[in-house]
Each structure stands twice: as C-alpha cells, then as structure tokens.
Design a protein that fits this description.
33% helix; alpha+beta; seven-stranded antiparallel beta sheet; Umud Fragment, subunit A
Length: 274
C-alpha cells in the first residue's frame, strides 16, 4: 500500500511550534529535529538556572528575552521548512491525535503555579505581598522573586528578608526581616531594638505611631534559642511578627527575597531587596 502524501501547511507548522516547542518540525516529518529543538531549549534554560543567572533582575529580563527569541526562531524555522517542502509521505507519528496530545500538555502547563516549575528548574520562586507589614521596603501587591535554596548550606544573616511559614498556621507564608540570631538576646525598649544590650541601627523601619504600646514597643529580653531567629516587619506599627508569637524556627524558612519583578509603581520594578 502506497504511503499517503500530503503538502505541509506553513502557518500550521509555525503555530504548532508556538504551542509546543519543536511540534511544527514533527508536523513537517522531521521528528528528530523537533525533539532536538525541544531538548536544546530546555537544556539551555536549565543550565542558566543552575548557574544562577535569573537570581538578578537583569538576568531574569535576559532570560525572558532569550526565551522569546528562541521560541520565535523555532516557530519561524518550522514555517520556512514547511513552505520549502513539496508533497511528502506522511509518517506514522504525523497524526492529528499526536499534535493534540502535545498541545493539551502545553495548555495544561499554563495552570501549573509558577513556583512549582521555577523552583526546581531556575532556583526561583515568586511571592506577592498581601499586606503593608513591610512598608516602606515593600508595598502591598509588590511581586517578588525569591531564592528557595538560599539557606540550604548557610544560616540567615541579620538584615536578610526571608520567606517563611507562619508558625501558627503553616499554610500561610510571610516575609519579614531577620533581626536577631540564635544565641543573641533581643530586647525592645520604647521602640528601640537592642541586640545583646547594643542599640540596632535600622534605616529601613517605619514607625509613625508616637504612642507606646506594650509588647509592640516594649519586648523582652529574650535569648534566641538554637535553631531559631527573631524576625520583625519593617512597618513596626502594623506587623504580626516575633514580638507576638516568639522566635522563628529556622526550619520554617523557605527562602530569601531577591528583587521586585513587578509593582504598581513601575519605578520599583527591578529593585534589589536589602
């Protein structure tokens, strides 16, 4: 029986590669090339993630641009390839069911939360501010990029902005600043933080309420136990932090905030957090 011959549609080839990298080449009967494009694109970005490029905002921008350029190149290649082809004998894999299968996988990936694939492949995880507890450093609805691997081999340092699971409800994640480390004694007297009796200079904090409120503005002294740290929100008048629920277990820490990648105030986009 003679194999069925059919001319390839350039626009459909390009569209298929836009929907799933390399699928247009598969449609053109060049499955090996399509698979190669898919693996190369994945390997390049995986390598970049391992090297830590996107851990800086300029790296994230370059990553996004490179991804778009490569994505378009592969789609255009499929279009040109199909346009140059004459009628070709269809192979077993050149079937609508095959194309539909990969398109469904691609469309289904849209509904996967970004942190699920960014964390293992790029070493990144997005986080959105839900409150004003970190004003003025962070504003409500700021979108941050975080490094979930930051503390796998080292402990947090004073001043680090960390993402952690709220000890009283592990389903919630907060972001706050590390103030005191294990073995240190922290005390707050009339809004001033002291570490081992020495006043802590804090240019980042916001305190507008002149009234003194016990627990909020006077606390401790408390010696931080091993395996813990003491965290505070920069907005000291409105933050549910270690003053109210105690030292934070280091095991609860899920990463370090790196930079703002999106914000209502566009001037804040790209701001490195410190």
């Amino acid at each position: 029986m003679t194999a069925k011959k059919k001319k390839r549609n350039p626009f459909l080839a390009g569209l298929l590669s836009l929907l799933f990298t390399g699928l247009g080449q598969v449609y053109n009967g060049k499955a090996g090339l399509g698979i190669a494009f898919f693996l190369i694109s994945g390997a390049l970005f995986l390598l970049w993630g391992v090297l830590g490029g996107p851990h800086h905002f300029i790296g994230l921008v370059a990553y996004a641009i490179a991804g778009i350029v490569l994505w378009l190149f592969i789609a255009i290649h499929a279009f040109i390839q199909a346009r140059r082809m004459r009628e070709t004998e269809l192979k077993r894999y050149q079937k609508t069911a095959v194309y539909a299968f990969f398109i469904i996988i691609s469309l289904g990936s849209i509904f996967v939360p970004a942190r699920v694939w960014m964390s293992p492949f790029l070493g990144l995880s997005p986080y959105k501010m839900a409150t004003g507890s970190m004003l003025p450093t962070l504003q409500k609805d700021d979108c941050l990029m975080t490094n979930p691997r930051a503390y796998r081999s080292q402990a947090p340092k004073r001043g680090d902005l960390i993402i952690f699971e709220y000890p009283r409800d592990l389903t919630k994640q907060f972001i706050m600043r590390v103030i005191a480390l294990e073995g240190e004694t922290v005390e707050i007297k009339n809004k001033q933080v002291f570490i081992d009796g020495e006043p802590l200079q804090e240019s980042y904090k916001l305190q507008e309420d002149v009234a003194l409120v016990n627990t909020r503005d006077n606390f401790g002294p408390l010696k931080i136990p091993a395996g813990h740290c003491f965290v505070l929100g920069d907005n000291r008048d409105n933050s549910n932090d270690s003053r109210f629920w105690g030292a934070l277990p280091l095991a609860n820490i899920k990463g370090q905030a790196l930079y703002i990648f999106w914000a209502k105030d566009k001037k804040r986009i790209g701001l490195t957090l410190k």
